[in-house]
Specification:
- By secondary structure, the chain is of the alpha/beta class.
- The protein has one domain.
- Helices cover 39% and strands 12% of the residues.
- Strands 1, 2, 3, 4, 5 and 6 form a six-stranded mixed sheet that branches.
- Strand 5 and strand 6 form a beta hairpin.
- The longest helix has 24 residues.
- It is globular, with a radius of gyration of 20 Å.
- Keywords: ATP-binding, DNA damage, DNA repair, Exonuclease, Helicase, Hydrolase, Nuclease, Nucleotide-binding.
């Protein structure tokens, strides 16, 4: 699908898929209206600081679905994660999502006739061992569980999620073209979009289906558009790379046993591109001014950074990027250089 097809172990985000609100593969999403409002408010929040000519710094060069969602949710959260790179504790929900994704990916290594629920569940212990080796920080999740009772319940829930998948899809009839596919595309504007797609299916007729696994429950109908933001992001990348609009976007919710599908058209992808360009401009302005405003929501309760957030009486760390006088960067586009997006 893309010249760079390296896989990546899931850590709970989509630069690791993967999702949108609290860190990790939690399934809370903002409604489409809230997303649009978040983008608009983010632009307004940083415009004042830029006009004041405070300072200029190096803007980001890329966006992933998770980082775009971070900025829409709270510009200060984006700064903490992308610029300050503050550490975050692993969560049971996010780590379980990583584990389940690894199992579903590995299952397709087996011949079609051997892709059974018992085989899938048998992969869980080995993938858990591998996850602990590659991400040792997850071990602390069960440091206070010497008898292993909580770990046993956690692994049993992972088994239930894996088993439920077999009621939603039949892996014996699937031959994915790609699994855990890293994709990257540069838009005409210079913005680079990147992310990891859980699964890509290609029909004999050439039609493309993008599939994403969610270990939470399906959102209510009014939240569905927000849930599809990540998928439309991926569809845009595929379209820009291959000039092919995916025939179907499919979200498989293992927590509730639901499947949400959407068939995009070019107009959808063009709207997503305009939205991402607006977000990129807002991020560029915030980077130049150092003005990152918190945007309080109910999701603040999940945030690991309350101690350094002004909304909770904290003080953010000193702005770490090299700065320069405002006006030295081009007003019409990003300055040279990049912070990780």
């Amino acid at each position: 699908m893309e010249t760079s097809t390296e896989g990546a172990a899931r850590t709970g985000t989509d630069d690791s898929a993967e999702a949108a609100v609290p860190a990790g593969r939690t399934e809370a999403v903002a409604p489409a209206a809230a997303e649009a409002a978040g983008a608009a408010e983010a632009v307004a929040a940083v415009a004042g600081g830029r006009a004041a000519g405070v300072a200029a710094a190096v803007p980001p060069a890329s966006l992933s679905p998770s980082r775009a969602s971070d900025f829409m949710q709270c510009p200060l959260l984006y700064r903490f994660r992308v610029i300050d790179k503050l550490p975050e504790k692993p969560s049971e929900a996010a780590t379980r999502g990583t584990l389940v994704h690894a199992v579903l990916e590995r299952l397709f290594d087996a011949p079609a006739t051997e892709r059974t629920a018992p085989r899938a569940k048998s992969l869980i212990p080995g993938q858990w061992d591998r996850l602990r080796e590659t991400k040792p920080e997850v071990v602390e999740l069960f440091a206070d569980d010497p008898e292993g009772e909580r770990l046993a319940r956690w692994l049993a829930e992972a088994e239930r999620l894996v088993e439920r998948w077999f009621t939603l899809e039949d892996p014996t009839r699937l031959e994915p073209a790609e699994r855990e596919l890293f994709v990257e595309a540069r838009l005409d504007s210079g913005l680079k979009l990147r992310g990891i797609i859980d699964r890509v299916d290609v029909a004999p007729t050439g039609e493309v289906r993008i599939v994403d696994y969610k270990t939470g429950k399906a959102p209510r109908p009014e939240y569905a558009e927000g849930a599809l933001f990540q998928m439309k992001f991926y569809a845009l990348v595929v379209w820009r790379l291959k000039r092919v609009v995916p025939r179907r976007l499919q979200l498989v919710y293992l927590g509730s046993g639901d499947v949400l599908t959407y068939d995009p058209v070019i107009a959808d992808l063009e709207r997503v591109e305009r939205k991402l360009l607006a977000l990129w401009e807002a991020i560029r302005q915030a980077t130049e001014t150092g003005d990152w405003r918190p945007r309080p929501t109910k999701l603040c309760g999940w945030c690991d950074h309350q101690a350094v957030c002004p909304e909770f009486g904290g003080t953010p760390p000193p702005y770490p990027l090299p700065v320069r006088e405002a006006g030295l960067s081009s007003a019409g586009g990003p300055a040279r250089g990049a912070a990780a997006g």
